[in-house]
Amino acid sequence: MAETLTFLFGMLHVCLSLWVTVHILLTKRDTASATGWIGFCWVMPYLGSVLYLCLGINRVRRRAQKLREDVDPEETAFLAKWSHDAADSFMYPLVRMLDELTGLPLLKGNRVECLHNGDHAYPRMLESIGQAQRSILLCSYIFRCDRIGQQFVAALVEARKRGVEVRVLVDGVGSGYLYSPIIQTLRQQGIRCARFMHSLWPWRMPFVNLRDHRKILVVDGHVGFMGGLNIGDENMLSQPSSGRRIPVADTHFRLEGPVVQQLSEVFVRDWGFTTGETLDGDCYFPPPVSAGTIPARVVTSGPDTDIEQIEYTILQAVILARSHVCFMTPYFIPDNRFATELGLAALRGVTVDILVPRRSNHPVTDYARDACLRELVQAGCRVWLGDPPFNHSKLMTVDQAWSFVGSANLDRRSLRLNFECNLTLHDQQTAAHLEEFIRAKCHHRLDLAEIDTWSLPVRLRNAACRLFLPYL
């Protein structure tokens, strides 16, 4: 009997491992990831197959496309016509690439306002919610039910009482997995809300590794907010944060103009995927109105698309840079392709500045990051360690002419696994402001001499943490 059971369990292990191997060979593009999963499933009977079932399979197969295939002729007036006399005309190949890659046009006629920290952003967001007349679309990775969160809830409730259509989408992990206080509060107040990719069933576990990291607020289809700012007390630097959370600085952007419709499309697509409800009509997509002069375009990425659009945008921008590339990111764990591109840019004479926090709110991520820095410093990249408070901003500028901002960090999770939303801005004034903001925080430059002082245990710890790069 025992021998029969042993044989049956052995055959089950072989069948499961064969199924996993076939699935990986047919679906995984990353050879290192594929090899690792195959080896893990064969070496670890049952456990390897179960973990692959829960963590390794991408169950999201939405087609990345615009919701509305028919473009209103009036909207074509907002398509940015490229001029070779423009200050950022050297970025034209990137514009053309994104035309094909995203299916979204570069739109002129936009106004962009940069807002630093919750102290400046939250009042503007709450003001817009208070002025809403037709619709409010709000998406946040973290939406806490604390003092600031309650202010947003109160504003949303008042808007709903005025007859405004309100939809709120939060991430199934970031805003509470087992229990989400903000969702319970919103539902009690009658606000239509949902949790993205959330399930307690083990066979429906994409939520563990696939997260909606976007931060979007659209009011009446005309005013939009996006960037890196979550909703919580810790983002109010002028007031002590509640509990044991560390203060978090961040950067958000207020938008007006035709590009706001692209933000709405991102939210509506995520909302429809989560709830099955289709949001359409003038309530959410009113006729676009010019509000400024800045050409802009939304760029999204996530495991539902075949190409990592945000990563490709960054890599192409680095390739086109002539003199200076500037990054500010809270989490920096580049893979070999990304690190090589930055190193090559530095070697050809481009100044590459990378500002990261001295210490973030995730120590393991910092350790993995530190394991990546030696090669970049050796290639000539300038790595800067920012002082507290921890800054959560995600900013990129090229030659003080072009900016790329939004929710995506410079790590594999953001660039390959998370659902992210970024924005390209072709505006010298915005780029100059962001570069000046970044430069003001570049106080301590990391050099090889300092890296060489790290002890062997520290270097081993960092290298070991880097092995978990896909999941940090």
Plain-language structure description:
With about 475 residues, this protein is an alpha/beta fold. The protein has 2 domains: about 190 residues, Endonuclease, Chain A (2-Layer Sandwich); about 160 residues, Endonuclease Chain A (Endonuclease, Chain A), CATH 3.30.870. Helix content is about 40%, strand content about 20%. It contains 16 helices and 19 strands. The strands form 3 sheets. It has a 15-stranded mixed β-sheet, sandwiched between helices. Strands 7-14 form a two-stranded parallel ribbon. Strands 11-17 form a two-stranded parallel sheet. A hairpin with a 3-residue loop joins strand 5 and strand 6. Helix 2 packs antiparallel against helix 3, helix 4 packs antiparallel against helix 9 and helix 9 runs parallel beside helix 10. The longest helix has 26 residues. The protein is globular. The chain starts with a helix and ends in a 6-residue tail after the last helix. About 0% of the residues have low confidence.
Radius of gyration: 23 Å
Mean pLDDT: 87
Compute the number of strand runs.
19
The name of the CATH topology of the largest domain is: Endonuclease, Chain A
Would you identify the CATH architecture of the largest domain? 2-Layer Sandwich
Please count the helical segments: 16
The largest β sheet comes out as: 15 strands, mixed
Strand order across the biggest sheet? 4-3-2-5-6-8-1-9-18-16-15-10-12-13-19
Number of domains: 2
Query: Which structural class should the secondary elements be placed in?
Result: alpha/beta
CATH class of the largest domain: Alpha Beta
Dominant shape = globular
Uncertain stretches of 5 or more adjacent residues: 62-71
Binned, the helix content reads 25-40%
CATH superfamily of the largest domain: Endonuclease Chain A
Strand share of the residues? 15-25%
First-residue to last-residue Cα separation: 45 Å
